[in-house]
Amino acid sequence: MTELLKLAIQKSGRLSQDSTFLLKECGIKVDVGHTSRRLKVRADNFPLEVMCFRDDDIVSYVADSVAHVGIVGYNVVKESGSDVEILESLGFGKCRLSIAVPKSMEYNKISDLNGLKIATSYPNSLRAFLATHNLECSIHEISGSVEIAPSIGLADAICDLVSSGSTLFSNGLREVATVYQSEAVLIISRTRGDNVAIDKRDEIDDSIDVLRFRLNSVLRAQEYRYVILNAPNSQLENITTLLPGAKSPTVVPLAMSDWSAVHTVVREEKFWEVIEELKKLGAQGILVMQIEKMIL
Ligand code: PRT
Ligand code: ZN
């Protein structure tokens, strides 16, 4: 029997749903619907076992090879300092670790943080940031509700995860510095299962390669849009330069003379800019579609 690849994901929290959705998009059928009761679930059509843990435990379980790979926030990896390698960034769970001060506090530059008492659940990340900026602050470690620390007099400032910023806003705080950006990542132990027999390790490595290949085609597809448009032949060269696509665009003649249909892909982040340029070049009937998988 093929050795099972053990993948640790968050049992119940912000990353759980997106992690299982990503597996589904990769064509892996695994029913982790009742994760709160089940620790381990086997996939139906892939040599994979999903293990469900608290996010704080995932990094050490992967480092110790209890699981071969794991999906967890970059923030948790960075804070733990554990010996794991990041294989892929997964594009969900996006947030940033930031320092925030009360709105009433005067703040102009990073050195204004000097001497402050900062509450955080991320002491290691904060310590490294303060050292890089030659700041001397006292770090007050707390495990939750960091955002209320200044209002109850526990600290002058906070260092916490931010996504929309509404928690900071509703607690009268202002974000003044970013320690790092974070998103969910796929991690692997650096020892890669030294305790596993060589042939079994090869099977695990093969499964990791297949999983990464599928993840990449799903993630790449999310970054691009498929564009179809009609353009006068006189502008085809300019349009091809603007939209080089994966290799080069597909150009098909229209029934109407001197016009062609152009099929290509464009990066989502560049999309609106490119559309404006296309309009200027005389493109018409522009259709834009999401891509499900993209294999180069
Ligand atoms: O139970 P378990 O230990 O597994 O979960 P947890 O409660 O420790 O973590 P969970 O589920 O809250 O978050 C899991 C991961 O989601 C984090 O490690 C981050 O990688 C990622 N993530 C993304 C976030 C946020 N966005 C986020 N906004 N984690 C926490 N927050 C919190 C933040 O701490 C603050 O309290 O949301 C609040 C701020 O949100 P905004 O939108 O108001 O700015
Ligand atoms: Zn946690």
Structure description:
- It contains 8 helices and 15 strands.
- By secondary structure, it is α/β, with parallel strands linked by helices.
- A 6-stranded mixed β-sheet has the order 2-3-1-4-11-5, sandwiched between helices.
- It is flat and about 75 Å long.
- The site of phosphoribosyl ATP (PRT) has 21 residues, from helix 2, helix 3, strand 9 and helix 5.
- Phosphoribosyl ATP is lined by residues 10, 13-15, 54-56, 73, 75-76, 93, 95, 160-167, 182.
Enumerate how many helices there are, as a single number. Answer: 8
Helix percent band: 25-40%
Mean pLDDT: 94
Ions and ligands: phosphoribosyl ATP, zinc ion
Identify low-pLDDT runs: none
Question: Biggest sheet: strands, sense, closure?
Answer: 6 strands, mixed
Number of strands: 15
Q: Can you tell me the overall shape?
A: flat
The end-to-end span amounts to 32 Å
Residues in β-strands, percent: 25-35%
How do the SSEs run, as a string of H and E?
EHEEHEHEEEHEEHEEHEHEEHE
- Alpha carbon gyration radius: 24 Å
Structural class by helix and strand composition: alpha/beta
Strand order of the largest sheet: 2-3-1-4-11-5
Supply the key terms:
296 residues; 28% helix; binds phosphoribosyl ATP; binds zinc ion
